[in-house]
Amino acid sequence: MKKLLIFLFSLFLQFTASATPSLKVAADSAYMKENYQEAASLYEKVLEEGYSPEIYYNLGNCYYRLEKIGPSVLNYERALLLSPGNGDIRHNLELARSKTLDKISPLGEIFIVTWYKEVINWFSVDQWATLGIICFILVLIMLCLYLFSKVVLIRKLGFYSSIVFILICILSNFFAWNQKHILINRSTAVVMSTSVNVKSTPSENGTDLFVIHEGTKVTIIDPTMKGWKEVRLDDGKKGWIPTGSIEEI
């Protein structure tokens, strides 16, 4: 009986290990055949087993082809969150955003903040962490050259190079931590309803402030009220909307 249970358990592990790749192959095949609804359903099932920027990107493409702007923006945003340096994802996200009804001009920010965001989005969490590890190894190599080489030029090269690699290592780890913090503490969402009235208070009786539409990205600033979220748009406008009208990125 024990051997039988072990055998059945091993079969189960093999099945679960191969289920997701099989689903992805089927989803990719459906997408190539332009069966976008079927492909979207299959990609959603793949995401139940585990997520990746590629799957979110493909799912966003499916919904874009189906002219479902809210889900397409949502999945492109999720893909970009996992792979911020991917130009294809960013391009398709901009295409999807161009289909939204709300054209919101973001508030201006000082150039140093914009520059910092651009730099930190060059790589993903794993890529920044990998760069940090590589630089740390290079620091050790350069220090060995500095300590043990008898050639003055090589010692100078080892000393100054180690300083550079230490700085890059520190920055890489800081950027990786920052990216991880963004992934864990997600505070943005996408409007999934065709349109929603933004209220002055978390109540249906609240005053209507303005209307936003499907695909608009918002930042959640107060999630504490049951059934309601206080949100802020990129242009600074604030208000309350029903929780069911948005989906967190």
CATH architecture level-2 label of the largest domain: Alpha Horseshoe
Instruction: Give the overall shape.
Output: globular
Structural classification: alpha+beta
How widely separated are the two ends? Answer: 47 Å
Could you say what the CATH topology of the largest domain is called?
Serine Threonine Protein Phosphatase 5, Tetratricopeptide repeat
Can you say what the CATH homologous superfamily of the largest domain is? Tetratricopeptide repeat domain
Q: Give Rg in angstroms.
A: 24 Å
Strand content: 5-15%
Sequence of secondary-structure elements: HHHHHHHHEEEEEEE
Number of strands: 7
* The number of domains: 3
Helix content: 55-70%
Mean pLDDT: 88
Uncertain spans: 1-19
Main sheet: strand order: 6-5-4-1-7
Biggest beta sheet attributes: 5 strands, antiparallel
Question: What do these coordinates show?
Answer:
The structure is a single chain. By secondary structure, this protein is of the alpha+beta class. The protein has three domains: 96 residues, Tetratricopeptide repeat domain (Serine Threonine Protein Phosphatase 5, Tetratricopeptide repeat), CATH 1.25.40; 74 residues; 61 residues, SH3 Domains (SH3 type barrels, Roll). The protein has eight helices and seven strands; from the N terminus they run ααααααααβββββββ. It has a five-stranded antiparallel β-sheet. Strands 2-3 form a two-stranded antiparallel ribbon. A hairpin with an 8-residue loop joins strand 2 and strand 3. The radius of gyration is 24 Å and the shape is globular. 29% of the residues are buried. The N terminus is likely disordered.
